[in-house]
C-alpha cells in the first residue's frame, strides 16, 4: 500500500533524525504533540520497574508514534504513517537517557569513561490500526576520559538532549575507540532498519 505523496510524519524534534531521513530520500513532515517548544519531554520517559532496556525504548518509541497519530486524527490532518523513535545508552544494566542537567551529563560521561556500553534505538511506525517496530543495538567503547575533558565537553552544551550525555557526530567522537553496529543508530535513527520498516509500510526510500 502506498500513502499520499509517499510521505510520512516524523514524531520528533530531533534535527539529527530529520537529517538522517532526508539522507535516504524520505519525504516527511514534523508532527509534534505540542506546537510550542517547551523544555522537557512531550511524554513521560521514565522506565518502568524491572523493564528491560529493549522493552523500554520500544515502549517509548511506540508511545511517541501512536500518540502523535491520535493527535493527527484529532487535528483532522491527512493520514500518513507516523514514525517515532527513542534512543538509550545502557552500561552495566543501567539505562542512561537524556541528561537532566549539564552536571548530570558529566556524571554519565564519567560512568562511561573507559567502558563499553550499548546504544539501543527503537523505531516505530504507526499506520492505520497497527504499529510496527524494530530495535537497533550497537556497541561503543570509550577511552578513559579525564575530569578536565568532561568539564570542557559539557561546557560546549553538546551533551544537552543526548542519550548518555554525548553526541557521536560531534566532539565526543574523540572519546570513542571502537564501534560495532549502526553509526546512524547511535545518532538516533538506524537507517537500515528505518528503510526496511518504511518499505514494509509501503513507503519508497530513495524516491
Explain this structure to me?
- The chain has 207 residues and is α/β, with parallel strands linked by helices.
- It has a single domain, classed as Maf protein (Alpha-Beta Complex).
- Helices cover 32% and strands 25% of the residues.
- It contains 6 helices and 7 strands, in the order βαβαββαββαβαα.
- It is globular.
- The model has no long low-confidence stretch (mean pLDDT 90).
Short description:
The chain is an alpha/beta fold. The protein has six helices and seven strands.
**Number of helical runs?**
6
CATH topology: Maf protein
> Largest sheet, if any?
7 strands, mixed
Total domain count:
1
Question: For the terminal residues, how far apart are their CA atoms?
Answer: 15 Å
**Radius of gyration using CA atoms only:** 17 Å
> DSSP strand (E) fraction?
15-25%
Shape: globular
* Average of per-residue pLDDT values: 90
CATH-level-2 architecture: Alpha-Beta Complex
The proportion of residues forming helix, as a percent range, comes to 25-40%
Structural class: alpha/beta
